[in-house]
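Project standup — Tuesday

K.O.: blocked on the structure for the chain from last sprint. Re-posting the sequence here as requested.
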Amino acid sequence: MDVVYQTCCGIDVHKMKWVACLCKGHKQEIKEFSAKTKDIKAMVDWLEGNKCEMVAMESTSVYWKPLVNIFEMRGLKYMVVNAKDFKAVPGRKTDVLDSAWLADLLRHGLLKSSFIPSREQRELREATRYRKAITEERARALNRLQKMLEGANIKISSILSTITGKTTMNLLDYVLNNDEMMDEKTAETLIISRISASVKEVTEAMEGIITPFQKTMMKQVLTHLRE
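H.V.: unblocked you, prediction finished:
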């Protein structure tokens, strides 16, 4: 079988450690490194010192990312492969380490690299996913607040277009932090934006029956929405 890389390395990826098998000609050298940054750098020094041409590692969870970050910084060529692809290659023996098997397959060009976006693309993707998660979390919090208001018989969402506006927040803060019933004079001072509803309609909509527990829960949700 043709040899594609004279010197290459297979890395078995774990959460707390990596097992690297350097394949140099017909010789193999296996070393274990911790997941600490200083040890990743030591691994790269070892690979560079041996003039490693290519590194292959499993796409296990997100544990491969610290390696890729440093490999890119140091200009070391690598590929990330799907575990099911290389473990399904015929001829693998059960007593062979994954790192050694990876190195052997890599040496003979039998591995298919997964697509790994550039670092800028990975960071953009991470930021986008985080923004999406926050947006979805906020939407869930708004739905939760709406259900709580309905449970307390507060109908402010029926007369105002949004429950996150300044006026609505003022009205809710008053109801949640005062034991007295809201009257029209008080409601008028709390309305700071232009609304189509009258002060009387607002006052009637804010009249509900809120238990101490409901107040506590609503305060928690409002705090979350304001963060």
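K.O.: great, moving the ticket to review. The chain has nine helices and five strands. The first helix runs from residue 37 to 49.
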